[in-house]
Amino acid sequence: MKKMISGIKPSGSPTLGNYIGAIKNFVHYQNEYELYVFIADLHAITIRQDPLELKRNTLDIATLYIACGLNPNKCTIFVQTDVLEHANLGFILNCFTYMGELTRMTQFKEKSQNTNNDSIGVGLFTYPPLMAADILLYDVDYVPVGEDQVQHLEITRDIAIRINNLYNQKVFVIPDKIVNKVGARIKSLQDPSKKMSKSEDPSDKGCIFLLEDPNKAYKKIMSAVTDNEMLVKYDPDNKPGISNLIQIYCSLKDVSIETCEEEFKDSNYGTFKKAVAEIVKTTLENIQSRFKEIRYTDKLAEILNEGKLKAQKIASKKLLEIEKVIGLK
Ligand code: TYM
């Protein structure tokens, strides 16, 4: 079985973008791959976090993985800080990553924009080598992510290839990204030129949270920005709002874009939006009812503990291997 890993950062309440771009796909992959999913709490603290919220978001994401359909008997679910090897390898990889490469990272540029150098944490700068460590510790073949993570995957490959070449041996498996065609970048409902993200949409109206009131989510879809053409057609350049709603609909309904266009070819935007709002509402209701069953149980702690032990075993072996190659052991 080929191996796969991915993670979500608990830096805010998880969104419909996280579900469509990431979690929903993991659920399919767990049957075909040896899958590892984790909560990237170290990555979250690269931006200031409220301690109670950070803890809550971490456990919420762990619960959501399961509530969305991940089966702990089929995949390994763990918290990044429970496996110390991530931070350890992260530091080692810092030493094989260049300032120039990190300065060019889009995410760093965006997040540090408008901030004085004196108040940007170094952790934000060295975010990519830590992410590379998350991936390279597990010898995975694939990393399924949304479009915004592609650059991080590219630098992961670059670092791994660099080290393999330097030591003239296959220290690391070189991972490939998997980015789904539909839903790789769900946009803000209010400004479809931006991605759907809590931090990038201060009004909250453009972003649907997996744990929000489903009726509120319904209303957000109904008031999503569209255009004046009254034609349900996928055309991201000219019709970004409608194209975004089509992506949401197709992903949640598991239908193709053509099928959606055909279904709504004679409909007005009101009718189409209602259909999108309905499926979003139903999806949230289903996820939330499972979420409630799991969130405050001992079972959750057990699952995370089992995940930690499994991940630690693999990660500690790999770290030792690398330390030997480098001469640290
Ligand atoms: P994060 O927490 O920002 O997002 C988690 C996953 O959700 C995807 N995603 C989206 N997909 C489509 N549309 C959107 N609007 C949207 N918003 C988020 C992301 O692409 C991602 O797949 N750096 C990572 C976390 C991480 C990681 C890793 C991922 C740390 N180490 C190792 C994979 C492997 C991040 O911040 O994701």
Write the layout of secondary structure elements.
Elements: E1 3-8, H1 16-29, E2 34-39, H2 41-44, H3 51-67, E3 75-79, H4 85-94, H5 99-103, H6 106-112, H7 122-125, H8 127-136, E4 142-144, H9 150-167, E5 176-178, H10 214-222, H11 240-253, H12 257-263, H13 269-294, H14 298-326
Parallel strand pairs: 1-2, 2-3, 4-5
Helix pairs in contact: 3-13, 4-8, 4-14, 8-9, 10-13, 11-13
Domains counted in the coordinates: how many?
2
Q: Provide the CATH architecture of the largest domain.
A: 3-Layer(aba) Sandwich
- The third-level CATH topology of the largest domain is Rossmann fold
Name the strands of the widest sheet in spatial order: 1-2-3
**pLDDT average, as an integer?**
95
Please report the number of helical segments: 14
String of helices and strands: EHEHHEHHHHHEHEHHHHH
Could you characterize what this model shows?
The protein is mainly α. It folds into two domains: 3-180 and 298-326, 3-Layer(aba) Sandwich (Rossmann fold); 204-292, Tyrosyl-Transfer RNA Synthetase, CATH 1.10.240. The protein is built from 14 helices and five strands. It has helices at 16-29, 41-44, 51-67, 85-94, 99-103, 106-112, 122-125, 127-136, 150-167, 214-222, 240-253, 257-263, 269-294, 298-326, and strands at 3-8, 34-39, 75-79, 142-144, 176-178. The strands form two sheets. A three-stranded parallel β-sheet has the order 1-2-3. A two-stranded parallel sheet has the order 4-5. Helix 4 (85-94) crosses helix 8, helix 8 (127-136) packs across helix 9 (150-167) and helix 11 crosses helix 13. The longest helix is centred in the last third of the chain and has 29 residues, at 298-326. The radius of gyration is 20 Å and the shape is globular. The chain starts with a strand and ends with a helix. It binds tryptophanyl-5'AMP. The site of tryptophanyl-5'AMP (TYM) has 28 residues, from strand 1, helix 1 and helix 8.
